[in-house]
Amino acid sequence: MTRMIIAGRQVDAHDGRTIDVVSPVDGEVFTTIPRGQQADVDAAVQAARAALEGDWGRMTALERGRLLLRLGESVLAHHEELAQLEARDTGKPMSTARGDITVLARYFEFYGSAADKVHGQTIPFQKDYSVQLIREPLGVTAHIIPWNYPAQMFGRSVAPALAMGNASVVKPAEDACLSVIRVAELALEVGFPAGALNIVTGLGEEAGASLSRHHDINFITFTGSNEVGVLIQQAAAVNAVKCVLELGGKSAHIVFDDANYKLAIPAIVKGIVHNTGQTCTAGSRLLVQRGVYADFMKALADEFSKVRAGTPDMDLDCGPLVNQAQFDRVNRYIAKGLADGLTVVAEGGIADGVPAGGYFVKPTLFSAPTHDSSSLLTEEIFGPVLVAVPFDTEADAIRLANATDYGLLGAVWTENGGRQQRVARGIKCGQVYINGFGAGGGVELPFGGVKKSGHGREKGFIALEEMSTTKTLIQFYGE
Ligand code: NAI
Ligand code: MG
Hints:
Blueprint: E1 4-6, E2 9-11, E3 18-22, E4 29-34, H1 38-53, H2 55-58, H3 61-77, H4 79-90, H5 94-114, E5 121-122, E6 129-137, E7 140-144, H6 150-163, E8 167-171, H7 178-189, E9 197-199, H8 204-212, E10 219-223, H9 226-239, E11 242-246, E12 251-255, H10 261-273, E13 283-289, H11 290-304, E14 308-309, H12 324-339, E15 343-347, E16 349-350, E17 364-367, E18 385-391, H13 394-401, E19 409-413, H14 417-426, E20 431-434, E21 454-455, H15 462-466, E22 468-476
Helix pairs in contact: 1-8, 3-5, 4-5, 4-7, 5-6, 10-11
The protein binds 1,4-dihydronicotinamide adenine dinucleotide (NAI) and magnesium ion (MG).
């Protein structure tokens, strides 16, 4: 049984209720988490507000930065323990979990060392005036975190918020939150003042909804489904607070006839099977120039059919899906692809010896005759399912890349430098890769979507601006 963290203490829900935590590997309950509700959220927001008015609010940027750096060190010192917890909770392969914990530490390192390097400005104004633009924290920041990368998303969201002097209340996902709780315990151990970082576990429609509409929060970050993203923005509107939304994608690889297969093929396979496709930035569409389509798909199929799903300890290419709902959803999409007449070009396998009751699916590579032949080309599946379609010209490739409601990532595979720039600039999205894919965390790289992938930017220095505000001081110094 795990407890949440409010006001520097490990606590149960106010009424003692809990939620079962199910292992994706075998479908069995292995622990419980508190089922936090409005009263628990109230206590956490109050604790955060008190921290801002107390020790935490009085700290200098340097002191906050040192605490973040210490937390980064502590994460590294507990690396294996955290990776085991993450793998148990999400079912991901051990090496993926280990990589995720390294990225978590990187967030605290990056933002810890950045905390005292955010400077203000002086602005030339009228005679005998001095104008300063200073940065201030927003106040109490709310963070609603998904289950696909609990540790990474926690670091991405919370590290810049704390670096800027906000006090945070985090609602991790009910499906996977154990690493987040453990890191908050480590934060207390390394000396974060009570209330600077609070974790309320619970259901989205209970604790999540209570937090997002709480009258005393000043900012919300949310990563998750489109549907809930809209609810979050509505809740933010009622309190007139800013929100950053990251709502997934349907990112396209564009492979031209001069692409370097050796680079492209492993990256395209990894881009859809890593984390069992449960990645907002998954490369889930593949556009290939018609002249090389058959040849490229054959080479890709050879590689794709080697993919294996297994348990964390088997440490293969991917694990199970996170829960029954995601398992049903991905299987529904695969059945829909077949019903829409798509061709299965290759399938990966499920390793022998995985427990019955686990949420394992066969990674599937489909080919579609045209981009409008199936909803699998426009909807986020969130599983190891890739759909390929041919295109003719550069203009067609850009048009198809933009033919979904999403706009998170894109990737261009060509040796032609002019084409690399034209296509990368033509895709409506927040990040484009050229002859590569996947940044393994990409802590330094500004990230976020356009269109229905959301708005606002995280990662890199830009997150420090998102998670703070400015004040303009205008002083007359004449006589
Ligand atoms: P979800 O959007 O319901 O869950 C994400 C987070 O939001 C969780 O912490 C959840 O507790 C919270 N939440 C749920 N309802 C809420 C509410 N009414 N108010 C406040 N918070 C709430 O996502 P779900 O249902 O687990 O997955 C459905 C689909 O969403 C996936 O198949 C995938 O397409 C997408 N998704 C995208 C993610 C991304 O990285 N962009 C991450 C997770 C899901
Ligand atoms: Mg949901």
